[in-house]
Amino acid sequence: MSWIQLRWHLQSDQVAQAEKLLTDHGAVAVVLESLADEVVLEPDPGATPIWQLVRVKAFFHLDLDVAELGAELKQLDPQLHENCEFDFIAEQDWQAALHQHAIDRRFADRLWLLPKSRAADPRPENIACLYLEPGLAFGSGSHPTTRMCLSYLAESVRPGQRILDFGCGSGILAIAAALLGATAVGVDHDDQAVLATTENARFNAVDSDQLQVFNLQDWQRLTEADFVPFDVIAANILAGPLQQLAEHFCALLQPGGRVVLSGILPQQVDSVVEAYPLIDFVKPVIEDDWACLIGIKNS
């Protein structure tokens, strides 16, 4: 069976109204994705996602009145001709797209990232299994920045270490660290991200002794006496925030501790490195035009 597919780029504050409009016109599915590779989460129906720029995909039966729908969409988005397009998609293309972005990847033979649909499968011994939903952006496991961070954690994290995942989003890095035997802390500025991390931790049988999750406001209320230095700080966010957080991260990291920083474009590497004078960085890891920086704090 074929479908009509709509692809539409919107600001986040337009999404709730757009989703209702599309559903009212018979959309059989509405998919929200980050347009700027921000973290993938799953908002409740009608909730506004945390992303600033959103790609909306909607699928309709072939009897859709495209002209009528287009006229209503233009009332919400006057620049519709620039931000929206319709095309046809076959059933097999839909299934292939889902399969392409399903996560099934091993890291250092210590961590196996799998879709939640595989959680009932027999679990192999001697490897930690982390179950998440498929996705296309940060936080899902299919984005190169996340893969580079996971590769480092799987290779290097040891039981008993303390790991901070700052900008935890889906919780993928913090949960991975906990499954590898570390004690993890996840921090995010958005309550929806905190909820997503908490729910994903619960699904993966990671309890509050293994992983604590804070929103940014609660985190900032903690005093210096509340902090135990971290062995590893991982932050898969963007270059600007990484530079702004450099002093904070270095204060939280114990001597000899490591930072794992991603969400960086190769041309931004030098400016991020300059913001961390207390960190000795190794050569950046580059994958698909994204960079990951790994460094050790001077003793």
UniProtKB/TrEMBL annotation:
<dbReference type="InterPro" id="IPR050078">
    <property type="entry name" value="Ribosomal_L11_MeTrfase_PrmA"/>
</dbReference>
<dbReference type="GO" id="GO:0032259">
    <property type="term" value="P:methylation"/>
</dbReference>
<comment type="function">
    <text>Methylates ribosomal protein L11.</text>
</comment>
<keyword id="KW-0949">S-adenosyl-L-methionine</keyword>
<feature type="binding site">
    <location>
        <position position="188"/>
    </location>
    <ligand>
        <name>S-adenosyl-L-methionine</name>
    </ligand>
</feature>
<dbReference type="InterPro" id="IPR029063">
    <property type="entry name" value="SAM-dependent_MTases_sf"/>
</dbReference>
<feature type="binding site">
    <location>
        <position position="146"/>
    </location>
    <ligand>
        <name>S-adenosyl-L-methionine</name>
    </ligand>
</feature>
<keyword id="KW-0963">Cytoplasm</keyword>
<dbReference type="Pfam" id="PF06325">
    <property type="entry name" value="PrmA"/>
</dbReference>
<feature type="binding site">
    <location>
        <position position="236"/>
    </location>
    <ligand>
        <name>S-adenosyl-L-methionine</name>
    </ligand>
</feature>
<dbReference type="InterPro" id="IPR004498">
    <property type="entry name" value="Ribosomal_PrmA_MeTrfase"/>
</dbReference>
<protein>
    <recommendedName>
        <fullName>Ribosomal protein L11 methyltransferase</fullName>
        <ecNumber>2.1.1.-</ecNumber>
    </recommendedName>
</protein>
<comment type="similarity">
    <text>Belongs to the methyltransferase superfamily. PrmA family.</text>
</comment>
<dbReference type="GO" id="GO:0005737">
    <property type="term" value="C:cytoplasm"/>
</dbReference>
<feature type="binding site">
    <location>
        <position position="167"/>
    </location>
    <ligand>
        <name>S-adenosyl-L-methionine</name>
    </ligand>
</feature>
<keyword id="KW-0489">Methyltransferase</keyword>
<dbReference type="GO" id="GO:0016279">
    <property type="term" value="F:protein-lysine N-methyltransferase activity"/>
</dbReference>
<keyword id="KW-0808">Transferase</keyword>
